[in-house]
Amino acid sequence: MTDYSSVKSKLLLLLGDEAEGEGTEYDGFVHNAVDCISPTVDEELQNDERVIFYCAARALYDLRLVESMGADYVTSFKAGDVSFTRDSSVLEGAEKLLETARAQCSGIIGDGGFSFKAV
């Protein structure tokens, strides 16, 4: 299993100044990312730096996705015709980071297909 604390450290690094204290509020995102990605990786590569980065990028994307559903990304609001706009650039950036991390792991992540490794 991929080390949760390594993924959390990488996530806190990606968050930079946003991360405060021990970051326990991110534990659920980290555990979800590791639990989704780790089973698709061979055991000897579980703590490969690319896998850790991929898990952290997944946790960051999930965090940004949840945040984008809230009011934090409202960039303007008009009371007259009741309209508002959201800044989607942060979520798009997290999505690009996730895609980059996924591409870097393409050679070591299983595709979920069925195969015999030995007969």
Commentary on this structure:
With 119 residues, this protein is mainly alpha-helical. Helix content is 50%, strand content 8%. The protein contains four helices and two strands, in the order αααββα. The protein has a two-stranded antiparallel ribbon with strand order 1-2. A hairpin with a 4-residue loop joins strand 1 and strand 2.
Beta-strand percentage? 5-15%
Order of helices and strands: HHHEEH
Separation of the first and last Cα atoms: 26 Å
By secondary-structure content and strand pairing, the structural class works out as mainly alpha
Q: Counting H and I runs of at least 4 residues, what is the number of helices? A: 4
Contiguous low-pLDDT stretches (5 residues minimum) are: none
The description of the largest β-sheet is:
2 strands, antiparallel
Bin the helical content.
40-55%
- What is the alpha-carbon Rg in Å? 17 Å
Shape: elongated
Please count the beta strands (DSSP E, at least 2 residues each). 2
Main sheet: which strands, in order across?
Answer: 1-2
What integer is the average pLDDT? 85
